[in-house]
Write a structure and sequence with these properties.
It comes from Bradyrhizobium ottawaense. This is DUF1801 domain-containing protein. The chain is an alpha+beta fold. Helices cover 41% and strands 21% of the residues. It has helices at 8-16, 19-37, 88-95, 118-129, 131-140, and strands at 46-50, 53-57, 67-71, 77-82, 101-103, 107-111. The protein is globular, with a radius of gyration of 14 Å.
Length: 141
């Protein structure tokens, strides 16, 4: 599955980022759509802006937590931001303690140069896209 065309306002937001960060985050965007397509229960994603940054929501099914793409003050890293009230960053840290750099309970940082760790990153994205499904399953037990 390839990512759909960029909505005009989201395209503008990517274009406003420094080129290396924008390029890296477009790679992450493609991986978000590919990961979502692998999970039928995620449904179609809503691509919009939250706080002026590209954001990916599971509005159709409510299966996941919002994924937002942006930056931190460090120009050598792009940021994938998650709701700080979730346990997502803790889960990522547990699975990949040395693979990514993290900021508090909110962000996973990716270097803008080098190979994108696709396998590990897709695991993190799938956890975010199915976050509420996992929580519902635990509550039902």
């Amino acid at each position: 599955m390839t990512a759909p065309p960029l909505p005009r306002e989201v395209n503008r937001a990517f274009g406003a980022l420094p080129a290396p960060i924008g390029k890296r985050l477009l790679q992450v965007r493609a991986l978000i759509f590919a990961t979502a397509a692998a999970y039928e229960e995620v449904g179609r994603l809503t691509e919009t802006l939250k706080w002026g940054e590209p954001a990916y929501l599971t509005d159709e099914t409510g299966s996941g937590s919002t994924i937002r793409l942006g930056r931190v003050k460090d120009p050598a890293h792009a940021a994938i931001l998650f709701n700080c009230k979730t346990t997502l960053i803790d889960s990522f840290r547990e699975r990949f303690p040395d693979r990514f750099e993290y900021r508090q309970t909110r962000a996973l940082l990716l270097p803008v140069v080098g190979r994108l760790p696709m396998r590990e990153l897709s695991v993190c994205l799938s956890l975010a896209l199915t976050y509420h499904l996992d929580r519902r399953a635990r509550k039902a037990r």
